[in-house]
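Morning!

This is the sequence you dropped in the shared folder:
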Amino acid sequence: MTARRRRAAPARGRVDRDAFDAPRCFDMVLSYACQARCRFCSQDFGWRSSVAGMPYPRAVETIYLAHKRGFRRIGFTGGEPTLRQDLPKLIALASRIGFNYVRIQTNALRLADYAYAKTLADAGLSFVKFSIHSHEAAIHDALTMVPGSFAACLKAMANLRRLKVGMGVNLVLNRANCASLPDCFEFLLLECRMSDFVIIAPMYEGNMAKHAREMGVRLSAAAPQVRKVYELFTRERFPTPPLLLHFTPCILPGYEQQMLGWSSFNTTVVSPQGLRMNLDETAGRHTVKPETCRVCVFHDRCIGLDKSYADVFGTDELAPLRALPRRPGRDLAPGGVGERTALTNNEICVLTVLRLKDGLTTPEMLALAKRFGICRDCRGQSAVIAAAEALARMGKV
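The structure's back. Tokens below.
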């Protein structure tokens, strides 16, 4: 990403997503080791067989330096972070020195063990992002190449719900799950009661590069299924539909507000070797746009397609938008919230607090909410008030 692009202000009438950006997050890739062998993974299997990772002393130093530089949200990822025996110690350290949000990204295999999940929760784990790629066990297990991995995810969800830890889902789009995408999200939203989602178009690197012919799917071909997912969230009047990663506005016009990467990531990532990357400064180095994009209304904001995707499918899917597209579902009547059954993480957090004590003032509720990591921002006054008011309209409180 060039300095010019970082400074550029959005043109009049164009969507500015900066106001929606979350606080800065610091992500640590502890190692590339993983017991799953996902066929769409952007890392190479050769990396995954290595147990070498960031040494514990360096991890400790990195956590302290991140806090010193003003980060208050931290994530541990990989590979698979739960393979690290020192993960509970790292979570406890981050929580103790002042990180108010501690997240892991996981395949959930180890979290199916309640005792282990409780160890992480007791250490201060706030949020878990699951890698779930289908609502059908056969498809998910075939994609991860680990029999029983889907059942492990469901058991891990139950464990974390019991432990009052927040949860979300990252789903990597591929040919095996594309057609059933709407059914998958109906299952995750209405049956699993999840409420935090990201749909990820894969990078065609590592293992995915080897399986591009059998696993790859063009974004334009996947777009109709993604739209059906958003139609589901609109019908359910659910206020937090999935975010999108590695998509462009012209492929899904009207859904710009949901797209990560064409505005601010607000995330710094550090590798096991200690290499630190600000995603907002490096994202543009790995993307491409044809000259025709210069006339698009989103040209100043959109960073284009990932180069690895373009190497496989080209860039002919990019068609410049001459006018700001209408956002589907934007005229949805707010009164319809009474028909909604699925709850956001904020609303679940408010209900959890009210089960401890009823008749709370807002400051009292905020104080009690600190016990739980169910949501990311209901410790803020406006968010908790909005969640409580939504629950009242739904007749939940």
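Headline: The longest strand covers residues 166-172.

More detail when I'm at my desk.
O.
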